[in-house]
Amino acid sequence: MIQLKQADFEVFDVEGLEPRMSAIIETVRPKLHQIGAQIAPIWSELTRQDVFVHVAKHARRSVNPPKDTWVAWSTAKRGYKALPHLQFGLWRTHAFLQLAVIYECPGKSMISDAFLRELESIQSTIPATFRWSDDHGKPNTIGHSEMNSIELERMVSRLHTVKKAELLVGLHLDAQTCDQLSSQIWEQHISETLAVLAPLQRLANEATR
Fold first, then answer.
1. Other residues' Cβ atoms within 10 Å of the Cβ of residue 206
2. Rounded to 5 degrees, what are φ and ψ at 108?
3. How far is CA 20 from the centre of its chain?
4. What one-character DSSP code corresponds to residue 133?
5. CA–CA separation, 94 vs 49, rounded Å?
């Protein structure tokens, strides 16, 4: 597995779209391709479906430089945003490995219903150290240990009731911690995280069939 170093996070300190994109392409993107290839067969086996790797290209940007970058895995060869998907990436402050249901997903309401039916199980099986988000475009998150069942139910329900609602959950590690981790510890973190997220991915897949 890869190792992330401080220099990988510092690409987001580079000013300007083209200079920052050059830094991302040179420093971070090779690692995203590497981890994309490494995780794909593991995730495919855990979720019982073929998956394809999608590394963010940020092709639509013309002025503002990206504040994060990522690789995603989905069951579609040509895209991932319209499907529940796994993603690994970096903000300036931290790295993440998380399951994501974002606003482009037309099956959000069905996923919401499926998650609500299993809410008690989800509440008990998600590690306290995992973090939740309702907006993939912002680094702000809330720890699972900080949420009670009512708050979690409210966040999951928003997928059904709010058009732009999103739901993301997974492992977040701050940049300094990442810089100090060995490849063996990284592999352990990733393996444990995938094992927790796979049942949620399978549940989401079943809900949208």
1. 11
2. -55, -45
3. 22
4. E
5. 29
CB 101 within 8 A of CB 159: yes
Separation CA 38–CA 121 (nearest Å): 29
pTM: 0.95
- On the question of pLDDT at 61 being above 90, the answer is no
**Measured between alpha carbons, how far apart are the two ends of the chain, in Å?**
32
Q: For residues 61 and 191, give the distance between their C-alpha atoms in angstroms, rounded to a whole number.
A: 33
Alpha-carbon torsion 110, 115, 118, 119, what sign?
Answer: negative
Residues 68 and 89 sit within 8 Å (Cβ to Cβ):
yes
CATH numbers and ranges of domains, the chain: 6-207 (3.30.930.20)
Percent of the chain with pLDDT over 70: 100
CB count within 10 Å of CB 199 equals 15
